[in-house]
Specification:
This protein is mainly α. The protein is built from 6 helices and no strands. Helix 3 runs parallel beside helix 6 and helix 4 packs parallel to helix 6. The longest helix is centred in the last third of the chain and has 27 residues. The chain is elongated and about 60 Å long. The chain starts with a helix and ends in a 12-residue tail after the last helix.
Length: 115
């Protein structure tokens, strides 16, 4: 087990790993993780606030970038995982949107002036 830990530490110290940490293959996906994390956090909020158009757009966006991350050489699996997670989160939000507005018949929102 000690040699496994030592091997892992040597890998982390390598020039290749440092180069990876300073590349867009690392920081691009790290920056993108804000989108799926926000979508996951929004699954606990009231579905009346979900924008169907934005959810659809973000689903298509993530599906296209998932394909890009798979096709680019070398493959960017961190970017793929980010957009796979976002696609799943957006599909969940889309299901909540459809359920609220078309299955349950969603209540129209009242403005402060109507109250």
């Amino acid at each position: 087990m000690g040699s496994l830990v030592k091997s892992a530490l040597n890998q982390l110290k390598s020039k290749e790993f440092r180069d990876y940490l300073m590349s867009t293959h690392f920081w691009g996906p790290v920056a993108n993780w804000g989108i799926p994390l926000a979508a996951i956090a929004d699954t606990r909020k009231d579905p009346s606030f979900i924008s169907g158009k934005m959810t659809f757009a973000l689903t298509l966006y993530s599906m296209m970038f998932m394909r890009f991350a798979w096709k680019v050489q070398p493959r960017n699996l961190l970017l793929f995982a980010c957009h796979f997670t976002n696609t799943c989160a957006q599909l969940t939000q889309g299901g909540r949107f459809v359920n609220y507005h078309y299955v349950q018949g969603g209540k129209p929102e009242t403005t402060k002036l109507e109250k």
